Structure formats: C-alpha cells, structure tokens
Give the backbone structure.
Amino acid sequence: MTITLLCCRCLKNFERSKILYEKNLRLGKRIFCSRSCVGKDQGGQTGKKNKRSVFNYYLERAKCRNGKEATITLTDLQKQWKKQRGICPYSKIALRHAKKQRKLKDERWWEVASLDKMDSKEPYIKENVEFVGLPINLAKNSNSKTATIELMDVIKERFELEKIEDYRFNSV
Ligand SMILES: [Zn+2]
C-alpha cells in the first residue's frame, strides 16, 4: 500500500510505501522523494556560515512539516529571534541555535532553541511562531500557550513546597 507524501527538499508530492513511511516516522527521519533530494539536503548544510544560515534549520523543518502553508521566511525568523533577544519566553533561559544533528545527550541540551507554533493547529506563519527551549517544546507538545504556562506554574509551585516528601528517599 502506498501513500502520498511531501518531499522535505523539493516540496513536491510523491508516492511511498506506507511501511517505509512508518519506519521513517518511528526513527524521526525527514522524508525525501529521491536520492538526489537527500544529497542536496546534506550538501546544503555545509559551507554556508553566515548569520542567516543558522535559521535555515528551522525554516527547512517548518516547510517539511507544513509544506507550502509554512509562509515564514528567513527574515521573519531573524526578526523573531531579535524581538525575543534569544530568550525562551517560558523558562527565561538564553537559547542557542540547534545544530542539524541534534543530540539530546548534549551538555546543557535545555538551551537548544526550538521553533514553536504558538497555536499548534495553525501553520508556520510569522504571527504564530516563537523560539522556545527544546524541553519546553517537548512538554508543550500540541497544548496551548495558556496550558503550558499553567504547567510551568504548577511545577514551580510544587517544587517550592519543600515539605513534599520525595518518594525516593522515603521508601523502605
Ligand atoms: Zn524531492
């Protein structure tokens, strides 16, 4: 059985077996229509090291997820980063840009920036994106901004209640 997919490089539709697609999904790999597009994707990552290219990472992922609905541009991303001064609006942590091969075991991985859709039902458009810390984006998932702020408040509140006994130190 085949399904229609969107190539992460050329943004064209193509057919692929459902089994292969699901395997890629499990591995968290991006999907390409051809070897040529895989090659271009890898080639495009090296060499360029100007200020804008750090934002390419986010742009490519956004296009990969939303296709042509993702109308944000490199300039929008640059402006957004400047506007929030590279600070995560939830955790107030100073963010740093993600590398292509993101490793969750990196030291201080919580500083890695991740592009969040404030309203996850809307596409990647300039009014709907902001940079947040990677762990925040993982915790936020498809929840709303309000629900995520609530979660932060709950964690902070519970954490500060020192009287809450830690089960790890109280079991037999
Ligand atoms: Zn392609």
Notes: The longest strand covers residues 2-6. The mean pLDDT is 84. The helical segments are 18-27, 35-43, 53-66, 74-83, 134-140, 145-160, 167-170.
